[in-house]
């Protein structure tokens, strides 16, 4: 479809397939916050695992579930829009290679776990490539996903207002395996 539109309208339109411009495969926009900018989560505070294996077709999206276990001594509150959005990473280099490319609603939905308890958080996985070398979609194979968890401190002044996000900390999960299929 992108090729047909490109032939018909040329440079009169800006075409984007997933996260890359068409036909030159340049990133459509910069992605805020690389994983290296966000600290790895502290296993003394929480651990994570997938509820079940996740398989997603190349160029498509899938949903899964992340079990977060509170291993700390304080309650944890994960701020979401109803789910966390995964980044597809190379399991060896841990470089981000793909993501969900689309709009999401942004209601404030919180998942809580007391010390010693677990909570299941929905996960959205998209395979739009952000790496021009891979093409427009993460190809079939064994990959990994990581999520950025935003933890809320319910005791911080003004925590529900959302202004300047007082009392919020961000952590990235360790990579968890997924399969991308044809």
Describe this structure in words.
By secondary structure, the chain is mainly β. The chain has one domain (42-155, 168-181): Intracellular proteinase inhibitor BsuPI (Immunoglobulin-like, Sandwich), CATH 2.60.40. It is built from one helix and 14 strands; from the N terminus they run αββββββββββββββ. Strands 3, 4, 5, 6, 7, 8, 9, 10, 11, 12, 13 and 14 form a twelve-stranded mixed beta sheet that branches. The protein has a two-stranded antiparallel sheet with strand order 1-2. Strand 7 and strand 8 (96-99) form a beta hairpin. The longest helix is centred in the N-terminal third of the chain and has 8 residues, at 2-9.
Spell out the blueprint of helices and strands.
Blueprint: H1 2-9, E1 15-17, E2 20-22, E3 46-50, E4 55-57, E5 61-70, E6 76-80, E7 84-89, E8 96-99, E9 109-113, E10 118-126, E11 128-129, E12 141-152, E13 168-172, E14 176-181
Parallel strand pairs: 4-14, 7-10
Antiparallel strand pairs: 1-2, 3-5, 5-10, 6-9, 6-12, 7-8, 7-12, 8-11, 12-13, 12-14
Compact summary:
By secondary structure, the chain is mainly β. It has one helix spanning 2-9; strands spanning 15-17, 20-22, 46-50, 55-57, 61-70, 76-80, 84-89, 96-99, 109-113, 118-126, 128-129, 141-152, 168-172, 176-181. Helix content is 4%, strand content 43%.
